[in-house]
Design goal:
alpha+beta; five-stranded mixed β-sheet; 5 strands
């Protein structure tokens, strides 16, 4: 089903600024060249622009790549890590926090064992 990300094994957040004009091929190139990861793997890759009010999510489903674009319509922005050299593997809980506008680095949250 288009847009069903529940079966994906990993969620990667691409830290730093991404040029939001990039399309599927451009984002796949970022994943391959900069992150040294396979964009066709069972993973969701998240990208954010300089304004932090929109994100793009890229993943591969059964017959092609899917690009999801979300723009916030409320005041504020995503709490996005900015160290360009990093890519982070998120848990589903951290993903939920991110999509809710909450910082993914919660120092008082219980860590899964």
């Amino acid at each position: 089903m288009l847009g069903d990300i529940s079966g994906l094994e990993r969620i990667y957040i691409v830290c730093g600024y991404t040029d939001m004009r990039k399309s599927i091929d451009g984002l796949c190139a970022v994943v391959e060249d900069q992150l040294k990861l396979d964009p066709a793997s069972s993973a969701l890759f998240l990208f954010c622009g300089r304004r932090r009010d929109r994100i793009k999510a890229l993943y591969r489903d059964d017959d092609g790549f899917v690009l999801i674009y979300k723009k916030l319509t409320v005041h504020g922005g995503y709490q996005w890590p900015r160290k360009q050299s990093e890519v982070r593997n998120l848990t589903w809980r951290e993903f939920d926090w991110l999509m809710s506008g909450i910082d993914i680095d919660q120092p008082k949250a219980l860590k899964p064992e």
